Amino acid sequence: MRVAIIGQGYVGLTIAVGAAGAGHSVVGFDVNDGLVTALNAGRSHIEGISDEQLASYVSSGAYKASSDAAVLDSCEVVVIAVPTPLDDDRNPDLSYVHAAADLIAQHVKTPALIINESTSYPGTLRKEIAARITDVDHLYASSPERVDPGNTEWGTKNTPRLIGGLTPAAVAKARDFYGSFCDSIIEVSSPEVAEAAKIFENTFRQVNIALVNEFAQISDALGISSREVIEAAATKPYGFMAFNPGPGVGGHCIPVDPSYLAHVANEVGVPATFIKRANEVNLAMPAYVVKRVVAGSGGSIRGKKVVVVGVSYKSNVADTRETPAAALIDLLREQGATVTWNDDLVGSWRGESSSPIAGADIAVVVTKHDGIDLAAITACGYVFDCTGSIAGVDGI
Ligand SMILES: NC(=O)c1ccc[n+]([C@@H]2O[C@H](COP(=O)([O-])OP(=O)(O)OC[C@H]3O[C@@H](n4cnc5c(N)ncnc54)[C@H](O)[C@@H]3O)[C@@H](O)[C@H]2O)c1
């Protein structure tokens, strides 16, 4: 099939490579010219996709990137994989999805299967995408992406894929497309079910992470190790699932998607109490970490040199979107500390560059990438570990 993917970020490029590998002719459309140039030169910006793999698809002609929307015309399948962030009031910002739908309305003039993979609330495919495209009789399906960047066990091929379509013909065509590079396809009765499943999955994680973050604070006040308690509880073979505490949640999904669910809940008059409380607990974690660091450093960090180790939101990934390291660094500075950060995967961020760990009075470990210099961390006068993986130091 001739396939166009709108948006070549974490999700779009992953699907593009999956589809190219299955023998489809894939064009990755993105508004970012620099990204398009890099992709066509075989340079991947995603951890799970190597330059070699990308370059081989570019040179065989199976894949090309473009910032010219004319490439969308005459495609059989058009996949939307654009950002769905929150606005300044933490409400859904569907402007990218609307822009993608408008591009399809302008440029896809022959009937195609339009698939939305961007995460959003139930009703998005029907009301925010299909309703904006009126000229041509397309098929529409929702297949929310479940990719977990950096996860080497579960990827596009072996993670079961949900499909919900506006019509049976849309579901059948979406099955043909995804069945060519995904092992397991699960059809649900409507796009709304598929959309809701995705945000419920991430809300489940957000709420459980908040619960364990609250529990970590209770445990610490009681003088018990929360990690040891969680390990002990996880020996129960049924009815318990282990989540680990941390400095907050980051990335494009867990801090964002539950607010999409809360938004529709409010619209239909249901107070999304758990979601709101979980947000508050997770967003307050950087302040809790700072409180513990100050207490563990003798009551003040004024004038001390603090290095924050690992500023991306998870290990072995360079993604800093919504990372709790940002609030943590700001709050440490408010306490009068001189704060630098170390993360060679991220390199530069917020107009600052990664600095060495050595020479700091205090190290606060937010994210631990493979190969991090543990000896340099433990050589600092005081270490606070948010990852629970460095023996013999303070932490959560
Ligand atoms: N990152 C993840 O782990 C993940 C996992 C599952 C689902 N999702 C969801 O997938 C969607 C995309 O997320 P992502 O992480 O790939 O985002 P991203 O920011 O990595 O990539 C989005 C890309 O879309 C491009 N773009 C924006 N507007 C465009 C337009 N009008 N036309 C063409 N390109 C446009 C941007 O330039 C960017 O390259 C979001 O809804 C997100 O919630 C993300």
Notes on the structure:
Strand 1 (about 1-5), helix 1 (about 10-20) and strand 2 (about 25-30) form a beta-alpha-beta unit. The chain has helices at about 10-20, 35-40, 50-60, 95-105, 125-130, 170-180, 190-220, 225-235, 255-265, 275-285, 285-295, 325-335, 375-380, and strands at about 1-5, 25-30, 65, 75-80, 115, 140, 160-165, 185, 305-310, 340, 350, 350-355, 360-365, 380-385, 395. The chain is built from 13 helices and 15 strands. It has an eight-stranded mixed beta sheet, with helices on both faces. It has a five-stranded parallel beta sheet with strand order 10-9-13-14-15, with helices on one face. The chain starts with a strand and ends with a strand. The chain is α/β, with parallel strands linked by helices and about 400 residues long. Nicotinamide-adenine-dinucleotide binds near residues 7, 29, 82 and 83.
Report strand order across the widest sheet. 3-2-1-4-5-6-7-8
Approximate shape: globular
Rounded mean pLDDT score: 96
Number of helices: 13
How large is the radius of gyration?
A: 23 Å
Give the percentage of residues in beta strands. Answer: 5-15%
How widely separated are the two ends? 50 Å
Structural class: alpha/beta
Largest sheet: 8 strands, mixed
Run of helices and strands: EHEHHEEHEHEEHEHHHHHEHEEEEHEE
Hetero compounds: nicotinamide-adenine-dinucleotide
The share of residues in helices is 25-40%
Contiguous low-pLDDT stretches (5 residues minimum) are none
Number of strands: 15
Topology readout:
Layout: E1 2-6, H1 10-21, E2 25-29, H2 33-40, H3 51-60, E3 63-66, E4 77-80, H4 95-107, E5 113-116, H5 124-129, E6 139-142, E7 161-165, H6 168-179, E8 185-187, H7 191-222, H8 226-233, H9 257-267, H10 273-283, H11 285-296, E9 305-309, H12 324-334, E10 338-342, E11 348-349, E12 352-353, E13 362-365, H13 374-378, E14 382-385, E15 394-395
Parallel strand pairs: 1-2, 1-4, 2-3, 4-5, 5-6, 7-8, 9-10, 9-13, 13-14, 14-15
Antiparallel strand pairs: 6-7, 11-12
Helix pairs in contact: 7-9, 7-10, 11-12
The protein binds nicotinamide-adenine-dinucleotide.
